[in-house]
Amino acid sequence: MMEFVFRGRALARRAAGGNRLLYAQFRNHAKYGRYWEKHLDAPFGKVGYLPLYELVSLIYREFRLFAGFPGEAAFLSRFMDAVMTLETQGVTSSRSFIEYASGVDEDKAAVFSIALPEYIDAVRVMTFHKSKGLGFSVVINLIYEERGQPDPMYFEEKNGEIRVYHITKAAAEASARLGPVYEGRRSDSHVQELNTLYVISTRARHELYNLVLRKARKSEAREPKLSDLFETFEAGRRAQRVPVARKASSPVDIASAEARAAQRFDALRPTCNSFFEKAEGELVHAMLARLIELPADPAPALAAGFEELRYNYPFMFDKAKLLPGLLSFLTGHAARPLFAAVPGRLVLNEAEFIDKAGALFRVDRVIIDADAVTAVDFKTGGEDVEKHSAQLLNYLGILREVYSRPARGVLAYVDLQKMVEVPAVRPQKEKNV
What we know:
The protein is an alpha/beta fold. It has 15 helices and 9 strands. The protein has 3 domains: 2-112; 128-229, no CATH class; 272-425, Lambda Exonuclease, Chain A (Alpha-Beta Complex), CATH 3.90.320.10.
């Protein structure tokens, strides 16, 4: 398949007169056609029928990408995240996705980028727009002449009006009125080029290299280009820097999605009551997530939260029943310390954490004090301490490693107005090797 993509398709296209589609050439190729039948025929038949995310998941599974390319797991996961994100923005078909990914808009391309930590030894590639305000030990600038299609659309602001002109170079030379408009934008363009030159030449702390690529010219240009400012030049000397010793972090193997043990889920009961109970629980969680500290009179805040959030769910909730119960829970002796204003305390609601296996966890409420960290898991409905404690212990293990302090957990049963404390987990002391 790679041989066809990089070599065989050019020959096949020339043989077909350059008019046939690439996938059709591959499908009908005498040598490669069997690979189409084996690997691509089934996914291709589902294009246009499956949602984009499911189609990409099918391709991942068919080609076992995580197993075949474990070193690319980060990008493969990021690509799936990009597909999910773009689907929410209306990019729902394979054609629209390819058009989006093929564009040159730098802001749009950011959805596919992977943020790397600053401390790794690596080369960062970016445009001068992205480099503004940043600094680097060594900077290598690639400067080359780029000639785009001239835009004949010009604008002039005069007497509070915007005037639009279509100006060619010949028209600018012949018209005394259009000439200043034409030259004004050219001057602005030259100023922008000089600003760009300033930006790229002031990013380096120790070493700066400007690699200038000039096109071969048969004669001198009528007007100087930005690249003409440079001549072969070298100044200064390399600084004798001693690399700072840095303790290497222990490598962490992140298991791919296929390698993780499958989670077991309780059988769902698709009844109206179960859907209502779930929606009511989500509403309570959303209302609690709005509270950092408990106000002196929490009733107005709860009422405002209820009115704002209840329209997110397709049910009519009993306000007269829900709000008094939630108010009684918050003002109770057991729950009040969880919402108290304590100097130096940091509270995170709906905080997201990732464990060593790459799994994502969302904790309802994390309370970070100077000497301990507390995870609060709000529960509606009945009590099941054994089941809920297992989930909370996962949170405590993560918080212990992140904050390096004792971690304790609290199961807060809102409907029952009951608190169950999970034993504290203390940070492990590092062993000297």
